[in-house]
Specification:
By secondary structure, this protein is an alpha+beta fold. Helices cover 16% and strands 51% of the residues. The protein has two domains: 34 residues; 134 residues, Beta Barrel (Elongation Factor Tu (Ef-tu), domain 3), CATH 2.40.30. The protein has three helices and eleven strands; from the N terminus they run αααβββββββββββ. The strands form two sheets. It has a six-stranded antiparallel barrel with strand order 1-6-3-2-9-10. Strands 4-5 form a two-stranded antiparallel sheet.
């Protein structure tokens, strides 16, 4: 027995064990005991997701991101592609002041101490691979809280995804529908 193992180099034994392990994994995959990444994709569907930008400084006359234009998106510091902007809601920072003249106890006015500070919600559309875990865009799962960067000719803003919706044949379906707020 010692002569048998004495003829083989330890590297040869490791190579043989590696080939045997690869064969076992290959057989398990072909017999459907193990799923590959390609088999986890259930569909490809258009999605829309919203990116919240908080505290964006804009001293120009208008907000630089506009609906029906394209913005380059970076997901988790990995450049992805240009995507279409569907909707933009940008509002300057506001402050609460008490009101004695109206029914309301307070009113909101533009904050005079922060005239160029904006909060914005940018709605973007793309085509995603739908898996059991959610939508996948550019190799990343698109979920609420995911940090993204939007970049255009005159801007580069960091934001967070706040909503993801998958468009199905019967309409729009919320990916995070099981995550109710309340």
């Amino acid at each position: 027995m010692k002569n048998l193992f004495g003829k083989f180099n330890p590297v040869d034994i490791i190579i043989v064990l590696g080939v045997i392990a690869a064969l076992i994994i290959g057989i398990a995959t072909t017999k459907h005991f193990r799923q590959t990444a390609g088999k986890q994709i259930e569909a490809t569907s258009p999605i829309t997701f919203q990116v919240v930008l908080r505290g964006v400084s804009v001293t120009g006359d208008e907000f630089p991101i506009k609906a029906d234009e394209h913005t380059f998106i970076t997901i988790r510091n990995v450049p992805y592609t240009e995507l279409k902007v569907v909707n933009v809601t940008a509002q300057s920072r506001q402050t609460i002041i008490p009101s004695a003249k109206t029914k309301e106890q307070y009113i909101l006015i533009k904050d005079p101490t922060q005239p160029s500070l904006y909060d914005a919600i940018i709605t973007i559309t793309d085509t995603a691979k739908i898996t059991k875990d959610g939508a996948v865009v550019g190799g990343n799962k698109i979920k609420m809280g995911l940090p993204v960067t939007l970049e255009g000719e005159s801007y580069k803003f960091n934001g967070t995804i706040s909503d993801v919706r998958v468009t199905t044949e019967s309409g729009v379906e919320d990916v995070g529908a099981n995550n109710s707020v309340g």
